[in-house]
Amino acid sequence: TPRVFSGIQPTNHLQLGNYLGAVKRFVQMQDEGMETIYCIVDLHAITASFQEPAKLRHATRELAAAYIASGLDPAKSILFNQSQVPQHTELGWIFNCVARMGWMNRMTQFKDKAGKNAEKASLGLYAYPSLMAADILAYHATHVPVGEDQKQHVELTRDIAAKFNHDYGVEFFPETQPIIEGAATRVMSLRDGTKKMSKSDPSDASRINLTDDADTIAKKIRKAKTDPEPLPETTDGLADRPEARNLVNIYAALAGTTRDAVIAEYGGAQFGTFKPALAELAVEKLAPISTEMSRLMDDPAEIDRILGEGAERAANVAEPIIAKTYDIVGFVRSR
Ligand code: ATP
Ligand code: MG
Q1: Of 56, 143, 234, 293, which sits with the fewest C-beta atoms within 10 Å of its C-beta?
Q2: Residue 261: CB partners within 8 Å, gap ≥ 6?
């Protein structure tokens, strides 16, 4: 039976790309009645740069609140933070010994995040995709809803599963399928149409945060980088206009419609007309979520309770899978 797993790092406030590319899809899959497991991947959050402990704790609870405010129901989905389920780390180590250096060297996210000076990057950042494979395969998950940028990591997960199965002569880990769907699988920075929108981008103006108020959202969209031309009359006209294409994609995803439909309505319009319409739509869709988030954040103890309960349920699923893995590998288990 299909089982869905995905995660988000508590590195900062959730940004619009996370919502449109990931969370919205998480909620749909839950509501379609699939078995869904959604994680706050705090172990991954400390790989790229030092996280101030109080901020990490706050971001973890805020991400839980964002999930729930977006429609994730802890009674239907398993919702938890990664570090409370040690099976992730246990399987991650085994996968560190299955994955090859050459495979990791091809990971574009490592190159992006390590920057020019890879010598200064943490070992954890390098091993990140191997831990991500463990996150998924500790549950024998088959479907992984993610944004476009995570496709390579999900493919690596398949390679790790295949090599493990081959090396040990078993049919144990399933093939995982990345689910990359919708109008906004790669939302771009508002300051640079060639760079993906990211929570951890140093420029706050590059993204819309789920915690931004209406004025901030309107201001960021008004200041978003664009070319001086009006919107084209057909979607083909967006081909070499990354900034315009991005704003049209965002509009389509927020409205739950297609790019063609947006161009049918706004083709020929100036940004002076389109941007305020986009800002209004964004506020209309995001304000209820951020209001509900701040309400939930008033009771952090309740959030912790939900995460603890989710972690217990997650561990119940992962524990027998890890026990079987240890058995396959040949580790003596005598207690
Ligand atoms: P960081 O900068 O810390 O890596 P991030 O914004 O990239 O943060 P992640 O926690 O790495 O967020 O990713 C969470 C999910 O959001 C993943 O499924 C990822 O593919 C998706 N995602 C991230 N950025 C975008 C984006 N710009 N457009 C669409 N999906 C995105
Ligand atoms: Mg990321």
Answers
A1: 234
A2: 252, 255
